[in-house]
Amino acid sequence: MKIDDIFDIILKNIGKDLKQVINEELSRVKKELYLNAAARYFDEVGYKEFKISDLAKELETSVGTIYNLFDSKEKLYVQYLVLKLEIFLGNLKENEGSDPLENLRVYLEYKYAKYITNEPTTTNDSYFFHKLEILNHKVVDEIYQYLTRQLRLLLPYENTNHEHLAILFKKLSDGFIVSHFSGQCSSEQIVDKTLDIFLNGAKQ
């Protein structure tokens, strides 16, 4: 039995007063299940090769059902990015300690993890970086808040705009990833190189 069939059976057997509430909850659960499946697919093939029709076959549902939940492939991809960033932020919070330099190191290690291994990755699409730049979501703000918090502790100078430094730190690490993909930067000591360049510049 398909997942859509299960949802339809449940809806047919509830009272009319609760139907809308239950329908909204089922849509939320369905959307979460479909997003998790889409995330695995994006991880495997990347944005360019991702096809809604292939995802629909895997989920045993229709293309229209997926479009009803996410509107478009682009919007589904944005939701995928949000999910990945939420996992990233959760790892940062779980491992945040009292040493701000070590916390920045952990940030970079998690951020670079997929790119500095020998395993194949599809997240080097320029589209990936583009979407990270324009994504308007609270998880992005929380990641910047995390960086700002570390930089305030690490560089407690007067008249320093730590929010600005947080943006520069993210941009620098983004640049290291792009440089790595272009063959200009090896993965060897990439975390230490990022920290050295940033901290030497920030202290000027």
TrEMBL record:
Lineage: superkingdom: Bacteria
Record-level Gene Ontology MF annotations: DNA binding
Keywords noted in UniProt: DNA-binding
The DNA-binding region ranges are 51-70
Work out whether the entry's keyword set contains Signal.
no
Q: Which ranges carry the HTH tetR-type domain?
A: 28-88
What's the protein name? TetR family transcriptional regulator
Q: Which organism is it from?
A: Sulfurimonas aquatica
